[in-house]
Amino acid sequence: MIKTIPLNKLAPSPRNVRKHADPAADAELKASIAASGLLQNLIVRAGSKGKFEVEAGERRRRALVALADDKVLPRTHPVTCLVLDETASDAVETSLAENFHRLAMNPADEAQAFASLVEAGASSEEVARRFGLTVRFVEGRLRLANLAEPVLTALASGDITLDIAKAYGATSDQAIQARVFEQVPSAYYAPSPDSIRRMVLTGTVRGSDPRARFVGRDAYVEAGGRIERELFDDDDSESWVDVALLEDLARARMEEQAKVLAAEYEIAWVRPTLDNYVSHDVLEGLHRLPAEPAPLSEAELARLDELDKSFDEHAAILECEDSAEEAIAAAEATIDAIERETDEIRNRPLVLDPDLRPDAGMILTLSRDGTPVLQPHYYTENAQVLAPEDDAVEVVSDGTGDAPRRATLSKRLVDELAMQRRDVLALHVASDPALALHLLVFTLADADTHDWRARSATTLRGPIAAGPVIGFEAKDAPATAALAELRSGLDESWRAGDDIVARFKAFRCLDEEARASWLGFVVARTFEASLNMAGDRAIALHDHLGSDIGIEIARWWRPTAANYFDRVSKSVILEALSEVGGSDLVARFAASKKGELAESAERVFSGNFITDAAVREAALGWVPEVMRFAAPVSDADDQAVEVDVDEHASDAVAGDFAADDVSSDDDGPREMAA
Fold it and tell me: Are the beta carbons of 77 and 6 closer than 8 angstroms?
């Protein structure tokens, strides 16, 4: 019977057959329920203590619980359920049937459904949020909705794959899509996404196209290919209309060439591609086989010595100022020939282990001039043929015995084990915020000590920001001097450690205040240069921080002749005087020359020139507008911002670093200005 049950009365059933979860799919389900509600009831069975066990719909129950945790739904949210009166075995069968008989939605149906929502006024971002998808996914489906009708119908019926349909969508011209779709069935070879993409992006092919040069004009015309030629066209600029036919002919010839080369090189296969490079799609499922260039014979080594001597002799002719023009031309031609022969000798074919040849293959590409090129690398489709000794790494680990343990592992296995071990370590560090904060600060601080040749433990980087003026340092500025004093006061005893492990252990032994000081310093030294002005120098976060902290820039920076007035126009100086003293003050200096005016302005704004108390106070508080930290203009600025922080994490960090006490104390940086 159908019954409404509070969410907090539902519990997972031990008989539910679904044991594994998909976080991405669960997120999509959660977003869908948040947007549209629960569209399908749960199937439950009465349990103990007034609870109902969910036999089918556990994912939906977890999504509802997650929404309740997010305060989107109440804990007592009513859930529509079908209550069964079954045995345990019947419940398992019900759970299996509910989970087993599922059919994923066809991409064409998804595309049309998303398009309907957008036509109704929803944006791509809104659709993505409502269904727990990425915006990129939604936009990709919307592009499918714009496919030509025969292409979309073929996708819906399963006649073409999703990748093929996406290839048709490389162009928005539905007429081109439809024309290529009509041509493709006549091709002998099954189309690939790459070939479809090439055809829709090029409605016709020039005679200079690598495929055209490879097939040849006669073969193309004989097979029924059409060529359109304008009055001034030549063989390279004429248009070959039947692209699908050309692709078919080129692929057939490449297949024939591949068979010949496979037999010639005594390998299992050669995989052809009409591209002039080896794409990711071509390499999918393949594994690189180890191979080394063939060694040089004694005769080849002797020939290289001869060529080197000949090169030196002819190079001397080119360097000699008295050489005749005929001799120089002959020397240049000889040097070119020497370089070609040298390259031919040194470009050795790769030598493959004979035991690997039965499983080995190579890739055949088509160069830009229409010539097939066999790429000089061997691959296999069977990773098992890679013996342990191939591409092997000798692993030496510390053991409990007298001698270290040694083992030989494949490089792939070493890499995979390293990644898995990394995840184990990352999980535990992520669960210990205090340790993570210690590691963050230490890594940034240790950048000054760390040996650049050694491998970094993390990807954390916090170098000193380089200013736009190389080598500039305002040593006489109060803030710069105070920052240098702060730097000199940091406890650097931990740097005495012989290696990074010893330094980290010593760093963790510092007291909380010392570690907190390092935290503030390593973060502060990463700030980029910015000003309160439009353009590249504007950084909104800097303005917000300065405004939020309440920084009085005039206490830390004063304009002088050297750092400001000598470097601005006379009108700018007079405008500054007008701001603090009005027209009366401007009149006193208006007739002064630029140099004298700059010196006078320095005295005015240092408070050493004016007797009027109000004007003096205004001058001491004045700084150019670009130096001020402007408060962002936003309604949100007037509202309190509440930040939810994990209780345990915040307690651990605050208790260990005492960061709030150090960074926001009113007796901190402001006291230094007194």
Answer: yes
